[in-house]
Specification:
This protein is α+β, with helices and mostly antiparallel strands and 102 residues long. It has three helices and four strands, in the order H-E-H-E-H-E-E.
Length: 102
C-alpha cells in the first residue's frame, strides 16, 4: 500500500462499529460553531489526536451543514468519521508512535 502518513485511515465495518460503541461513552471535546471548521478547530483536533485515537465533536448547525463540516475535518485533520448521532460525530485517527524516538 502506498498510503501517506497524513492520509485518512481505512477501517472495516466491524472496526467502525467497535469505535462507535466506544464513542458513545465519550464527551464532546471540540465544538464547531456557526463559523465552521476554523484553523483553531483543526489545531485543537491535532493536539487531541496526538494523545487520543477517538475524538467526539459537537456541531452547532443542522445535519446538512454538519455533513460538510465532517468532510472538512476529515480532510483537514486526516481523520475518519466513524459515526454521528444528532449533532455530534466521532472521529478516529491512530495515535502516532512516540515522537521522541528517532
Amino acid at each position: 500500500m502506498d498510503e501517506n502518513a497524513d492520509s485518512t485511515p481505512a477501517l472495516g465495518g466491524a472496526e467502525k462499529k467497535k469505535l462507535r460503541g466506544q464513542a458513545q461513552l465519550l464527551d464532546a471535546k471540540v465544538s464547531v460553531g456557526k463559523n465552521g471548521v476554523t484553523a483553531a478547530t483543526l489545531k485543537t483536533l491535532e493536539a487531541l489526536f496526538k494523545k487520543e485515537a477517538l475524538v467526539k465533536v459537537r456541531f452547532a448547525e443542522g445535519r446538512a451543514a454538519m455533513r460538510e463540516r465532517i468532510a472538512e475535518i476529515e480532510r483537514g485533520a486526516g481523520a475518519l468519521c466513524v459515526g454521528s448521532v444528532g449533532r455530534t460525530a466521532a472521529f478516529f485517527r491512530p495515535v502516532p508512535a512516540d515522537e521522541n524516538l528517532g
